Amino acid sequence: MICFPNAKINLGLSVTEKRPDGYHNLETVFYPVALEDALEINTSSRNGEKFRLTQYGTKIAGNPEDNLVIKACKLLDNDFDLPPLDIRLYKHIPSGAGLGGGSSDAAFTLKLLNEYCRLHLSEESLETYAAMLGADCAFFIRNRPTFAEGIGNRFSPVSLSLKGYRIAIVKPDVFVSTREAFSAIRPHRPQYAVKETVSLPVREWKEKLVNDFEASVFPQYPVIGEIKQELYRSGAVYASMSGSGSSVFGLFDPEAIIPSFSFGPETFTFQGVL
Length: 274
Known about the structure:
2 domains; Alpha-Beta Plaits; alpha+beta; Ribosomal Protein S5, domain 2; four-stranded antiparallel beta sheet; single chain
């Protein structure tokens, strides 16, 4: 059985306060994008390790057994004693990009196992399991536009459709440490609240819908800021870094012709329709 975990972008990202536990409260809107990995599971007849993950496509740092896909399998196995499984993961969503690729893989693993193994778990139960794997994993269970707050783990629906807009995503060969990005943040309440701002026409977002991490990341990695400016020069009606980087996306009118972008030989680019 196969599925296709998709990416997300952040529409606005306000870091509002530092919590007593050392984490930060934030506000953002998660929006699904049809940039996808491919995930397949099959029952295994071999002996040895119960869950074997084979990875293809873009290389992922670390050992396969540390992948969130395997952690998702083990999480459900604790409660349901799953059969031995062979898992194949083709990575197309770049890692360290602020696009939620690893979280999406984990959430889709839970959904795929629920169907494949006939576990009959509700969406609410799947969200509970997903939240154990990462703050934003639960978003990908329902996989629809969502306002997130807290540490990115408290969700509420948001009425928003970008259907028909074209999107370009550009990721340079740059890795931004989330810890490093947070270290330079000064929490504050935004002038324009994210949830209210996304209800405005997209053409009004440019000066109002802000990702707080840009102020600290762009000076350290100027190429990321250059990408945002190039997207605007190319006709984007809105452009922003996603998450804490390092990818930047631009939203274009449906009839727009989007040029190719290159910021070095390892630049990742994606173009699609929302």
